[in-house]
From TrEMBL:
<keyword id="KW-0554">One-carbon metabolism</keyword>
<dbReference type="InterPro" id="IPR042172">
    <property type="entry name" value="Adenosylhomocyst_ase-like_sf"/>
</dbReference>
<dbReference type="GO" id="GO:0033353">
    <property type="term" value="P:S-adenosylmethionine cycle"/>
</dbReference>
<keyword id="KW-0378">Hydrolase</keyword>
<dbReference type="GO" id="GO:0004013">
    <property type="term" value="F:adenosylhomocysteinase activity"/>
</dbReference>
<comment type="similarity">
    <text>Belongs to the adenosylhomocysteinase family.</text>
</comment>
<dbReference type="InterPro" id="IPR000043">
    <property type="entry name" value="Adenosylhomocysteinase-like"/>
</dbReference>
<dbReference type="InterPro" id="IPR015878">
    <property type="entry name" value="Ado_hCys_hydrolase_NAD-bd"/>
</dbReference>
<feature type="region of interest" description="Disordered">
    <location>
        <begin position="1"/>
        <end position="37"/>
    </location>
</feature>
<keyword id="KW-0520">NAD</keyword>
<comment type="pathway">
    <text>Amino-acid biosynthesis; L-homocysteine biosynthesis; L-homocysteine from S-adenosyl-L-homocysteine: step 1/1.</text>
</comment>
<protein>
    <recommendedName>
        <fullName>Adenosylhomocysteinase</fullName>
        <ecNumber>3.13.2.1</ecNumber>
    </recommendedName>
</protein>
<feature type="domain" description="S-adenosyl-L-homocysteine hydrolase NAD binding">
    <location>
        <begin position="330"/>
        <end position="491"/>
    </location>
</feature>
<dbReference type="GO" id="GO:0006730">
    <property type="term" value="P:one-carbon metabolic process"/>
</dbReference>
<dbReference type="Pfam" id="PF05221">
    <property type="entry name" value="AdoHcyase"/>
</dbReference>
<dbReference type="InterPro" id="IPR036291">
    <property type="entry name" value="NAD(P)-bd_dom_sf"/>
</dbReference>
<dbReference type="InterPro" id="IPR020082">
    <property type="entry name" value="S-Ado-L-homoCys_hydrolase_CS"/>
</dbReference>
Length: 571
């Protein structure tokens, strides 16, 4: 951008060299110094000065009405000329470059896809604020059994799903190996999970394996609208959009369950909301289910409560405590996605920041590892002495939230519990403290206690609120206490492939299990299935497993093909 002609702030002293560098004033007369400087000026700059001088008019004056020195004008004009020359040269070079339609098209496609992906995942739609419930949409085939934000985004959502497929080898392998057998033929699966490109690969894999699916979102902020559109266009009834209200959330779940001439016989849940809804509102349907697959701490807790009181009348598989979920999804997924969510929403630098992580389970371990790698000072709160000892031996100070809440810059919850951060903690936080949640449920932060008349909420940007106290103190709340990584960013497809493959195998196991194999209780996946899921992902790393000899297998008392560890083994 050219400099303004009347820039009064540009001054050149007697001893300055016009090369962008400063130099001490040399001894001697002004004329001698000027002569020395003239030697140092490059020929190109002299040409530019002459060109500028030819355009210089003595009548030009500065903004105050006084004549600007000739040197100032010459320099300003020279800079103009230089920039014009550079722009001209760049344009000529660009015009001379050979163009290849394929390369330009690919470049634009990648750039546009990256931009649209960020907008799709992290921004709220400003084009259409009306509720999807108020408008009738149809697919190209005339189907209307869905409720999403915009069916016109289907093409872009399909590209997102295809990208995710490349990083989800296990599900793609299941399609090839079991697609012909259709092990889920006759299964009617109703699901309530995050609706992202990764879960879309899972949903479509279940359909390839023979299942009929209907789906809702387990989080009001995590749905990728374009992906939901692609699924609906592909024929899967989807009831979800980003930014649902609480009423919309339950309405979508009910529309999934209550359909004409269609009743589910399997549940795939994340959080237990779908299971709870069917149990409370459709008890007769609940009793006819063949099985439930649950992958969250919150949902598993609810299932165990039903089991202990004798109200669980269907077998369920606990995916959350499977090895493939605990050791990979909880740890590595959160390790890589936590910082992405925090930086996209706050642009904060973590070097030297004080952060407290509430909970040191699989999720907490992943969060702490990524924060520590960024140079943050990390504190951990825990109720479990075993997890607390692990945190200590990993180099973290274990303390209580009350002890450090006044000094920390960031508070992260990942316990699966309720009211971990309460009003008493929020009142003591310093100005600008960031509060967020990496657990499944938004109950970990007591939001009701800060939805009061004396506190003001200010919407700063997407998924970012400032809660302002009467004295002016601000607490930065992310995603209104909901799951940070999926609400504010995206997660690695490869890690989710491990969990998704486990969920698919759990559904196949429950649906095809002979009568009497599973009672009305909560079960863990057999160790052999965990090992099978892991083996499906090794090829992408070009990893080669060693094999036991007959003598070695006999010595360990196991089969050569596994399982290699007993059920009670902790990896």
């Amino acid at each position: 951008m050219p400099l303004p002609d009347d820039d009064p702030e540009l001054h050149v002293g007697d001893g300055a060299v016009l090369t962008g560098e400063t130099e001490e004033v040399a001894p001697g007369t002004t004329e001698e110094r000027a002569k020395d400087q003239a030697v140092k000026i490059s020929p190109n700059l002299l040409q530019m000065l002459k060109a500028a001088e030819s355009r210089w008019s003595p009548q030009d004056q500065d903004r105050d009405g006084t004549e600007v020195s000739g040197t100032v004008k010459l320099v300003a004009e020279a800079l103009k000329t230089d920039m014009q020359i550079q722009l001209s040269d760049q344009k000529q070079k660009f015009n001379k470059c050979p163009t290849k339609t394929g390369h330009l098209s690919l470049s634009r496609s990648i750039s546009q896809s990256s931009t649209d992906s960020y907008r799709s995942v992290c921004s709220e739609s400003s084009e259409d604020e009306s509720s999807p419930k108020d408008k009738l949409q149809k697919t190209l085939k005339g189907l209307s059994d869905f409720c999403i934000k915009n069916i016109k985004q289907a093409d872009f959502g399909r590209r997102e799903i295809e990208i995710a497929q490349q990083e989800m080898p296990a599900l793609m392998a299941l399609r090839k190996r079991a697609g012909g057998e259709k092990p889920l033929s006759g299964a009617k699966v109703v699901g309530c999970t995050h609706i992202t490109a990764q879960t879309a690969v899972l949903i479509e894999t279940l359909c390839v394996l023979g299942a009929q699916c209907r789906w809702a979102a387990c989080n009001i902020y995590s749905t990728q609208n374009a992906v939901a559109a692609a699924l609906a266009e592909g024929g899967t009834p989807i009831f979800a959009w980003r930014g649902e209200s609480e009423n919309d959330f339950w309405w979508c779940i009910d529309r999934c369950v209550c359909a004409d001439s269609w009743q589910p016989n399997m549940i795939l849940d994340d959080g237990g909301d779908l299971t709870h809804w069917i149990y409370k509102k459709y008890p007769s349907l609940f009793k006819r289910l063949k099985g439930i697959v649950e992958e969250s701490v919150t949902g598993i807790y609810r299932l165990y409560q039903l089991s202990k009181t004798g109200r669980l009348c269907v077998p369920a598989i606990n995916v959350n405590d499977s090895v493939t979920k605990q050791k990979f999804d909880n740890l590595y997924c959160c390790k890589e996605s936590l910082l992405k969510g925090l930086k996209r929403t706050t642009d904060v630098m973590f070097g030297g920041k004080q952060v407290v992580v509430c909970g040191y389970g699989g999720v907490g371990k992943g969060c702490c590892a990524s924060l520590k790698a960024m140079g943050a000072i990390v504190y951990v709160t825990e109720v479990d002495p075993i997890c607390a000892l692990q945190a200590c031996m990993d180099g973290f100070r274990v303390t209580t939230l009350c002890e450090v809440v006044k000094q920390v810059d960031v508070v992260i919850t990942c316990t699966g519990n309720k009211s971990v951060v309460r009003r008493e903690h929020l009142d003591r936080m310093k100005n600008g403290c960031i509060v967020c949640n990496m657990g499944h449920s938004n109950t970990e932060i007591d939001l009701e206690s800060i939805r009061t008349a004396e506190l003001r909420w200010e919407h700063v940007r997407t998924q970012v609120h400032h809660v302002i106290w009467p004295d002016g103190k601000r607490v930065v709340l992310l995603a209104e206490g909901r799951l940070l990584n999926l609400s504010c960013s995206t997660v690695p497809s490869f890690v989710l492939s491990i969990t998704a493959a486990t969920q698919a195998l759990a559904l196949i196991e429950l649906f095809n299990a002979p009568e009497g194999r599973y009672k009305h209780d909560v079960y863990l996946l057999p160790k052999k299935m965990d090992e099978y899921v892991a083996s499906l992902h090794l090829s992408i790393f070009d990893a080669h497993l060693s094999e036991l000899t007959d003598d070695q297998a006999k010595y360990l008392g196991i089969k050569k093909q596994g399982p290699f560890k007993p059920t009670y083994y902790r990896y």
